[in-house]
Amino acid sequence: MLETSNNDELPPIPAKRYFTIGEVSELCGVKPHVLRYWEQEFPQLKPVKRRGNRRYYQRQDVLLIRQIRSLLYGQGFTIGGARQQLAGENHKEDVNQSQQVIRQVRAELEDILSILKRPS
After folding, report:
1. Kindly report the CA angle at 114 between 110 and 116, in degrees rounded to 5?
2. Which of 29, 34, 56, 101 is the most exposed place for a label (fewest CB within 10 A)?
3. Residue 4 has pLDDT above 50, yes or no
């Protein structure tokens, strides 16, 4: 998911629940105005906003920002291409989950059918 080769120079993410935009900027090597812009361009990036409209990012947001940074700066994707790449990964996960549910339901239906076919 995250290209480690492009993020080796980034500091480790501390064990905190919320991060300010300044902290995320330092953790991801991206300026705050770029983070605000990415919020508009990537629907998956939704930091919590509290008093005074201050942004607070969670760990998954920081990981997503690092992934976006890797796609844009490391792999040379455009904003649109990176957006499609992220949407494609989410779609793959959804398809895998759907396939697992279908297999489980099918197995349960086959069990029910075998019960119904038993002689009374």
Report:
1. 115
2. 101
3. no
